[in-house]
Amino acid sequence: MSLIVHKYGGTSMGSPERIRNVARRVAKWRQAGHQVVVIVSAMSGETNRLLALAKEVSPRPDPRELDVIATTGEQVSIGLLAMALKDIGVDAVSLTGWQVAVHTDNSYMKARIDTIDDFRIREELKRGRVVVVAGFQGVDPEGNITTLGRGGSDTSAVAIAAALHADECLIFTDVDGVYTTDPRIVPEAKRLNSISFEEMLELASAGSKVLQIRSVEFAGKFKVPCRVLSSLTDPDLPVEVEAVSGTLITYEDDPKMMEKALVSGIAASRSDAKVTLHNVPDMPGVASNILGPIAEANIEVDMIVQNVSVEGKTDFTFTVPRGDLENTLEVLNKKVIPVVGGGPVETNDHIAKISVVGIGMRSHSGVASRMFKALSEEGINIMMISTSEIKVSLVVDEKYTELAVRVLHHAFNLENGPSEV
Amino acid sequence: MSLIVHKYGGTSMGSPERIRNVARRVAKWRQAGHQVVVIVSAMSGETNRLLALAKEVSPRPDPRELDVIATTGEQVSIGLLAMALKDIGVDAVSLTGWQVAVHTDNSYMKARIDTIDDFRIREELKRGRVVVVAGFQGVDPEGNITTLGRGGSDTSAVAIAAALHADECLIFTDVDGVYTTDPRIVPEAKRLNSISFEEMLELASAGSKVLQIRSVEFAGKFKVPCRVLSSLTDPDLPVEVEAVSGTLITYEDDPKMMEKALVSGIAASRSDAKVTLHNVPDMPGVASNILGPIAEANIEVDMIVQNVSVEGKTDFTFTVPRGDLENTLEVLNKKVIPVVGGGPVETNDHIAKISVVGIGMRSHSGVASRMFKALSEEGINIMMISTSEIKVSLVVDEKYTELAVRVLHHAFNLENGPSEV
Q1: CB-based burial, B295-307: b 16+ in 10 Å, e otherwise
Q2: In chain B, residues 63-102 whose CB comes closer than 8 Å to chain A
Q3: Residues that bind ATP, according to the entry (chains A, B) (predicted)?
């Protein structure tokens, strides 16, 4: 008997019929002899409906009260799933975030989990019940209701799996796993049977939307075995088949990782803008003089490149979220240029970031050069390059996004699965 | 500075605009220097929407999970009202039933309040905040969410007012007070400036729908000064005017009650049916032999009349809710007649119960006879009579309901206000 955590998102819980399907799927796992804890999101559309209602009442809704309102979406979901389970003969009980309790800090709308009590969940499991837990929500030290921010239900699921030392955390979603790249761009993209946690983290931060990045961080911190799989298959698919479907996230000390792939996947993101401050004096402290005021304005800088200097002057380039571009310009003009000098400022919000991720590149050089060669053969100009241990990210003109992804996917033979060393 | 509890029902909270109006009304009381605790219901229609959703998922929804779902309606309301208050510069905080905490037993869907913690509410009041509390809900000793049953928000308000020893509990509703009778039947009906708790209790049980009967019982138990008043007036009406509007529920030791009214109001109810078991032997124990099995079947008997016996046989008549009539017949035929004998059984589900209520009739005879005279002059036949210390109830043919109410209203000169001794 294993302890298995399931997670179902808003689409999977989107209608009474789908909720009954989720119940059948959960029942199947319970009847196979497992203890099951299920984390669910609000029915699709519900969170947006609640936020819109709040905005109708208040133009700038108070964050604490917004959390009080938003958490009702998941509370309705847990009640509905628990009653659907009982209807088909599976003893079940629902628990809200505070009933568990999921303890968080008091940052409304983006709270971080501190600890999770496992007492109540374990008591209910001992009674033979399936425990249905509301995702996305917690309670702060004063007993106020908090939420973990958008996509927080993934984080709830992974954190609860960690607290319970669950044997596996199954994230049921509307795709059937993690792919070598977005199948809408490259139809030959292959589903990965497994991916290392670090690769998953890099893919999530590079724009892959399969898992929320905070949930991946959490999974890595506590080495939670997570599997991403489809909730759209036949709910009566045998457990033995479902148990090995989708994509398993593994950890370095996992023996399966001995056969390391060079490159596992390619992600593309079109949400950034590029900013270049020309002719800044190349002297110690200039980088922090530029990036300090930007960080203070709560703007997240992603890639940073500084060119070699010519006659004591250099060009400093970085990327920021597109929505923060105007704000960034204001900070540069008001707080940076008056201090460090330099100029003019050049911006481009028609860029794409293409990232190649693979734990194998850690020990193998040549990944970057293979990338540059493949792109240059197609005449795609590279605007920026940034490398980490297991990722190479490039910025290209936005119009080349799909082409660049296809070219790189082919260059690493990913249509045959992760390219091995 | 007084501590005032406000209660707003679903109609008052029915739209973003109405919620902003409630906020203005609450702000006015706060700005007049009072501490204010507000209890709210779910937005009108919301509880029904949630129950319908539950029924779509499960034909016979589990009561525990139904409470988990139903309580989200009030949770949304408290968040919306708290943010509307903050928007107009009034510091406010929302609290759910478990956050207060309102401790109840574990009878889902009809829980009874055991105790109410006043710590958190008092802390928030000390911080200068308006405290917005979700009505209708509580938490059982195991930490499960419970509800108090339909109309439970009135009970929440009165109970919280009692726990806080509030100076007054203002029940804002869609009528502007308690009337001598239903103004839709008698346009000349007069609003009462005050009514004794006992009269209010009798009126509530006699069919007046102004306040939920459990909330009146609670008010009486803890002598909570309650005022029923309108939420549909201009929210900016001066506090001094609003503070004396509507109808105040008073207690016997209240000096205002020295000027006792003979009769305060008349209520009518069309929800009962009459059952007569003819020819039962008139011997000790027969009443309990008839009513025992009916009580065991969870059928509530209201009026009971036993005629004088003729030749050792008597007729036994009682009223039950119309919806329980068939069930009652089954119990009589299967469990009563085989034991006590008697028969046939006669039923009538086209009856009305007319009740005249007045604390003054305690010390003054003649109320009943004045009633009979007035009705007989109009040719209205009286089928049953039942009297209590401060109420006389009559059963008449349903078709005479409005006529009987008008005749009695006039007989006691209630168009000039409560008829005095």
Answers
A1: eeeebebbbebee
A2: 64-66, 68-69, 71-72, 75-76, 78-80, 82-84, 86-87, 93-94, 96, 98-99
A3: 7-10, 173-174, 179, 184, 209-210
